[in-house]
Amino acid sequence: MNKTILYEWHKKNGEIIDFNGWAMPVRYSSINEEHLAVRNEAGIFDVSHMGRFFVNGQDAEKLLDKLVPRDISAVKLGQAAYTFMLNENGGFRDDVIITKLESETFLVVCNAGNREKIGQWMQKHASGFDVEIANVSDKSSMFAVQGPKARQALSKHCSKELPPRFRAGYIDFDGIEVLFSGTGYTGEDGGELIIFADDHDELLDRSTKIWNALVSDDVRPCGLGARDTLRLEVGYALYGNDIDETTHVLESGLAFKPFMAIDKPVDYIGKQAVIEKQGKIERFRIMFKLMKRGVPRHGYKVFVDGKEAGVVTSGTMSPLTKECIGMAYVPISHKEPGSIFQIDVRGKLLDAVVLDGPPYKK
């Protein structure tokens, strides 16, 4: 398995699992404790397994405008913008965050399992554009510091004010230059730190210093287990579970501005498939909660009027509310809040209700 720069620390202090070919910590204490630490105080996640690419050159904006349905020309200097890359059929190649660092320099962050795929995809479509694409995934580490007290903990080590939510910039962290972005995957405040170094030992030294400094300030180390339950409470889709190459973007519940400008003038990849599918989708991704106790899991079948009609893509018991929640694809007739359907949970059909948005709102 691939290993992040702090693998030895995680192995010593946590439980390691195989996540998309990466040896990653799933937890250090309990998932519930780590989850609640992020909701109430602050937690830190090692997300160095994610892909990081610099796109440089006078055609950088033009290339990215072709690759994603978001209007990249509208992204401001220093802004971190969530969007996605589509295939020609309107399905998801990946969901990404694109940060405009300079007028001709962008950073693209993608999911760990798609690093090679997205790198090759960008290179393939860069032909004819004056751009250079640099994969800096192995020359950097990335930590997410999340929670209502996250910025307070970070500010102890930074000489200037941190960029606000969905803004990014280089900062000094105890003498180490890092790229800070006010982004995350938990629904809480805080941000993500990217540490760079060409030399492995230097990257290990810098990463260790930053990680240990924050952990010493009572920022709780958190694993992938809490990361999953936190993102589910706020309705964030997980690539490979809730969206993938076969999921049409119009079914996903993500086809809205600013993530996507369906009819933007640029002929982005998948545009024709999106336009042709408008008004014709048959299923839709929704958030739900079970009306009786039972944990819904990925792959559980959805039933409407006694007939199989969809599938659960993610589910858990919320550590915060103790409700059994999840995401599912249901017929378009049952996408509205309050709609009732059933889920086969270990042989029992349990009623579920469509929610009006995620169960947790900060």
CATH class type of the domain at 2-51 and 138-231: Alpha Beta
Helix and strand run: EHEEHEEHEEEHEEHEEEHEHHEEEEEE
Shape: globular
Rg over CA atoms, rounded to whole Å, is 21 Å
CATH topology heading of the domain at 2-51 and 138-231: Gyrase A, domain 2
- Biggest sheet details: 6 strands, mixed
| Strands, total number | 20
Residue windows where pLDDT falls under 50 for at least 5 positions: none
Strand content: 25-35%
Overall mean pLDDT stands at 97
End-to-end Cα distance, whole Å, is 36 Å
CATH architecture of the domain at 2-51 and 138-231: 2-Layer Sandwich
Can you put this structure into words, describing what you see?
Helix 2 crosses helix 7 (224-233). The mean pLDDT is 97. It contains 8 helices and 20 strands. Among the domains are: 2-51 and 138-231, Probable tRNA modification gtpase trme, domain 1 (Gyrase A, domain 2, 2-Layer Sandwich), CATH 3.30.1360.120; 282-362, Elongation Factor Tu (Ef-tu), domain 3 (Beta Barrel). It has helices spanning 7-13, 31-40, 60-67, 115-125, 150-155, 200-216, 224-233, 271-277, and strands at residues 2-3, 15-19, 22-27, 43-46, 51-56, 80-86, 92-102, 105-110, 132-135, 140-146, 168-173, 176-181, 190-196, 220-221, 283-290, 301-304, 307-317, 324-331, 340-345, 348-354. A hairpin with a 2-residue loop joins strand 7 and strand 8. With 362 residues, the protein is α+β, with helices and mostly antiparallel strands. A 6-stranded mixed β-sheet has the order 11-12-13-10-4-14.
Note the main attributes of this structure.
Gyrase A, domain 2, 362 residues, six-stranded mixed beta sheet, Elongation Factor Tu (Ef-tu), domain 3, alpha+beta
